[in-house]
Amino acid sequence: METISCDLCILGAGSGGLSVAAGAAQMGADVVLLEGHKMGGDCLNYGCVPSKALLAAGKRAHAMGQGAAYGITPVVPQVDFAAAKDHVDAAIATIAPHDSQERFEGLGVRVIREFGRFVSPTEVEVGEYRITARRFVIATGSRPFVPPIEGLDEVTYHTNETVFSLRDRPEHLIIIGGGPIGMEMAQAHRRLGCAVTVIEAASALGKDDPELAAIVLDQLRAEGIEILEETEAGSVWDFEGRITVETSKGPIAGSHLLVAVGRQVNIDKLNLEAAGIDHDRKGITVDAGLRTSNRRAYAIGDVAGGMQFTHVAGYHAGIVIRSALFGLPAKARTDHIPWVTYTDPELAQIGLTEAQARAAHGDRLEVARFDLSGSDRAIAEGTTTGLTKVMVVKGRPVGVSIVGPQAGEQIALWALVLANKLKLSAVTNMVAPYPTMSEAGKRAAGAYFSPRLFENPTVKRIVKSVQRFLP
Ligand SMILES: Cc1cc2nc3c(=O)[nH]c(=O)nc-3n(C[C@H](O)[C@H](O)[C@H](O)COP(=O)(O)OP(=O)(O)OC[C@H]3O[C@@H](n4cnc5c(N)ncnc54)[C@H](O)[C@@H]3O)c2cc1C
Ligand SMILES: NC(=O)c1ccc[n+]([C@@H]2O[C@H](COP(=O)([O-])OP(=O)(O)OC[C@H]3O[C@@H](n4cnc5c(N)ncnc54)[C@H](O)[C@@H]3O)[C@@H](O)[C@H]2O)c1
């Protein structure tokens, strides 16, 4: 068995692991990167990239039927499902070189394509190598959680790891789980010509503001997606190729089944006990600096059990680089992390929702709103369904919720504001180009200041007296 010594040994080459490896190697650290499956991890191969590519295909198909209001004859699109999947594969293939073994070896990283496991607090074994490192970074991600539903293991079901490789169009896709995976996949498949039923045990898009989530769900239902909320999936069986899910609201039969009920962290191969690394059901236990109970080891991204997004894994990577390479203190925050569900309309959130802000700040909370029906650009585009809500405490935003076209782009402004703890006046000071959707942010901020300015007797008195003295 060959022994390798290095500064940094990273387990997992997904969004988090790759970001640490690229940064650390380019700053002169001696880095070994272990990956037992595909370079790029979930995001590139089974997550963000294929889901956004499939949504894009669905968006094109949908637009073909939406021209009437603009004087364009609507047409029923002819969907070649396999060709839509070619688009998905092409998107993955185009991005893959950026995450590839060759690129990382070019940066000076030693890449070993095997699963690693700890054999002591200071050593990892991988294939025929034993690695000792000054610091370890566990970035092993997560996989789909498969719930204990009776009969599930006896039918063919899909998860995000298999659904993108279907080449034939599902006639009727049943989706268990109405979270972001379930709802993005529901709309993509519906727009590509599938019947879709979503079975959700609680509320669909339940992590978001219910007022805004309802706007998305109305649109999905209007497109023909059946969404059953407060509905338990009891048992599943296959009769002559038709999959039936018994639910608390009766049986649902379809041609294909997608299970999207959350994630399970990848820790089983790691032998964490040998390294003295604590974990629970949610993930590896970390402190504010992302250090585990073994001071030599950090855990980042999905496996750290917090918010599970690619940009969070990337953010964590920056914290680890600061701490492990420069020995500087660094703490991970969550109050400035945005997330977006890429349905049409998009749904975006940062910081506290209105309900969370009310619970945390009580009467000190003020909510500024702007409805997209007041946006000239939205009117010109014919896409006025949308709303921005800004939760403000003592002049500072503590959360923003946006639903509407390009909500994911619009939330970026608020990501800057919350990351830097700026006052709301920073947004009103900004001049936004006219006419753009991003004006909605400034208009929402304006809604906070308008009553203070325009319904204020003191302001009126000052203006009157100044006018008296002006030449
Ligand atoms: C369908 C879907 C859509 C999504 N869409 C978005 C989106 O639009 N935006 C967004 O921000 N997030 C999205 N996500 C979430 C995002 O994909 C994850 O948060 C992100 O991939 C987490 O990165 P990671 O580095 O923690 O883990 P991963 O990307 O899962 O990478 C972990 C890697 O570690 C490897 N590994 C595991 N065990 C070992 C071991 N013992 N040794 C070596 N290697 C190991 C795995 O093979 C894997 O390649 C989506 C997820 C899904 C499922
Ligand atoms: N656009 C994005 O950024 C994006 C897209 C997809 C996924 N993701 C990430 O991946 C994570 C996982 O997504 P997800 O949608 O699988 O998980 P989720 O936990 O967000 O949602 C799962 C849903 O399934 C429901 N559920 C659980 N058990 C059920 C059962 N037995 N029957 C019916 N419903 C059940 C839950 O109530 C919940 O609403 C997300 O939390 C997010 O971090 C992000």
TrEMBL record:
FAD/NAD(P)-binding domain segment(s): 7-316
InterPro entries: FAD/NAD-bd_sf (IPR036188), FAD/NAD-binding_dom (IPR023753), FAD/NAD-linked_Rdtase_dimer_sf (IPR016156), Pyr_nuc-diS_OxRdtase (IPR001100), Pyr_nucl-diS_OxRdtase_dimer (IPR004099), Pyr_OxRdtase_I_AS (IPR012999)
Cofactor: FAD
Residues of the signal peptide: none
UniProt cross-references to Pfam families, sorted A to Z: Pyr_redox_2, Pyr_redox_dim
Oxidoreductase among keywords: yes
Occurrences of domain Pyridine nucleotide-disulphide oxidoreductase dimerisation (ranges): 337-444
Annotated keywords: Disulfide bond, FAD, Flavoprotein, NADP, Oxidoreductase, Redox-active center
Keyword Disulfide bond found: yes
Similarity remark: Belongs to the class-I pyridine nucleotide-disulfide oxidoreductase family.
Cited PANTHER family: MERCURIC REDUCTASE
Protein name: FAD-dependent oxidoreductase
Species of the source: Meridianimarinicoccus marinus
